[in-house]
């Protein structure tokens, strides 16, 4: 009788105990890699957002917003000096010093705008155009001031030749330089908005990936421990237990850190940057408004135009239904609340209420000023423009600065908090990844050695 031996082929490696351990360990390692890769990607994304919004483009955009303020104030100062006539020597000296200060601020803002433009040729051309236009404006304004000095006159409108020169200068400022300065701020602000929108979309996705990868890694570690316990008839290994807890903790801490950074970016952008930029624009428009008051006295032919311009700017700041300046003054003084416009959303809290009250006092002073001018009391109107109106505007401007400082503090705190949280995340990543990897190897390697 012939005995036939049948050779049974060995089980495939993946179906053997070591093979299954390797497969489960490999899946676990893949989940861990995904977890820490998502955490690293989230950290890098947040870091980029904090850097652009908090340290680079954000502060520079706010600084370039000061360009509009500086330019508009230069033109307002020239108008003030021209209506002073041969009186108000002290005020004229102060105005001249302020003109030089604003010119320096404008030059600095243009340099920052040029730096921010980077390789954007369109923005660089805009900056160059503003520089060229500013030079032309200064020549015209200088000629008007020199001719005014050589043509003494009482407070009020200067000689017609001076007015014609100033018209050329202010038209250049209002029709070319100020719109270009405003467009620069809008274009540069796009960098911040685009960065924020990108991070606001990416960070939540990465945070969700962290949670999902963490849950998968925890599930794989539990699966690995159950398989090892059943196969080797032993209790759960302490190394894998600690690794499971460490993965769970890393997932919770990492997801929380990304969530806190997302909140910090949102607060810095919405409650900080947006409000600071809006208030910077409001200051610039307001400054141009008080320049329109002097221009209203300076140029009789364009007085109605400057009055309508003043109303349009007032409506852009605090909007109410008003077809003329008299109605606007009355409705603002009524303090009915619910204002819209650029300042409307900012009039909250104690400092917001102070801005509203100061703005109402400024508009009340404007009412008195225009009454004097309409009655033909030009000298008294000039005195009112240079004293009570100027004082009311100064108080209003200081209230805007105080409110902007409050929002800037919110902005700085949010950025600092985000950077601090991010610093903790960077400390967690290498330590957690190294410890968890070591624990997994420590828990799996002894079992694989038993099959050697």
From TrEMBL:
The entry's keywords: Membrane, Transmembrane, Transmembrane helix
Transmembrane intervals: 21-41, 61-84, 209-229, 235-259, 425-445
Keyword set includes Transmembrane helix: yes
Protein name: Secreted protein
Source organism of the structure: Nonomuraea maritima
């Amino acid at each position: 009788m012939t005995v036939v031996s049948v050779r049974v082929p060995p089980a495939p490696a993946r179906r053997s105990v070591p093979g299954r351990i390797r497969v489960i360990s490999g899946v676990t390692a893949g989940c861990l890699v995904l977890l820490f890769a998502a955490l690293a990607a989230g950290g890098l994304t947040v870091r980029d957002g904090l850097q652009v919004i908090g340290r680079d483009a954000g502060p520079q955009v706010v600084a370039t917003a000061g360009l509009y303020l500086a330019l508009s104030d230069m033109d307002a100062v020239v108008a003030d000096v021209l209506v002073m006539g041969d009186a108000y020597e002290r005020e004229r000296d102060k105005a001249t010093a302020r003109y030089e200060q604003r010119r320096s601020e404008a030059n600095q803002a243009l340099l920052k705008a040029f730096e921010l433009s980077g390789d954007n040729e369109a923005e660089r051309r805009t900056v160059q155009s503003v520089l060229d236009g500013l030079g032309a404006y200064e020549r015209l304004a200088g000629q008007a001031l020199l001719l005014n000095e050589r043509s003494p006159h009482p407070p009020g409108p200067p000689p017609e030749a001076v007015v014609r020169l100033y018209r050329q200068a202010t038209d250049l400022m209002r029709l070319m330089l100020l719109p270009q300065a405003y467009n620069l701020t809008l274009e540069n602000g796009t960098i911040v908005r685009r960065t924020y929108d990108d991070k606001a979309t990416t960070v939540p996705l990465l945070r969700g990936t962290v949670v999902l990868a963490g849950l998968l890694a925890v599930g794989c570690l539990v699966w690995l421990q159950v398989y090892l316990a059943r196969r080797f008839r032993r209790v759960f290994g302490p190394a894998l237990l600690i690794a499971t807890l460490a993965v769970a903790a890393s997932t919770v801490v990492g997801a929380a850190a990304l969530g806190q950074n997302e909140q910090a970016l949102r607060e810095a952008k919405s409650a900080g940057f947006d409000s600071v930029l809006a208030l910077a624009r409001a200051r610039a428009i307001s400054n141009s408004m008080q320049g329109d008051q002097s221009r209203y006295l300076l140029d009789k032919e364009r007085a109605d135009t400057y009055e309508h311009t003043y109303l349009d700017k007032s409506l852009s700041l605090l909007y109410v239904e008003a077809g003329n300046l008299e109605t606007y003054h009355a409705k603002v003084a009524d303090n009915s609340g619910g204002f819209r416009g650029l300042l409307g959303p900012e009039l909250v809290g104690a400092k917001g209420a102070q801005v509203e009250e100061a703005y109402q006092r400024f508009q009340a002073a404007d009412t008195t000023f225009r009454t004097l001018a309409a009655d033909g009391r030009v000298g008294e109107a000039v005195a009112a423009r240079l004293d009570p109106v100027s004082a009311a505007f100064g108080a209003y401007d200081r209230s805007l600065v105080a409110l902007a400082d409050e929002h800037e503090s919110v902005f700085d705190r949010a950025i600092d908090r985000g950077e601090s949280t991010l610093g903790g995340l960077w400390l967690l990543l290498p330590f957690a990844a190294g410890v968890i990897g070591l624990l997994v190897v420590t828990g799996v390697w002894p079992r694989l050695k038993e099959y050697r």
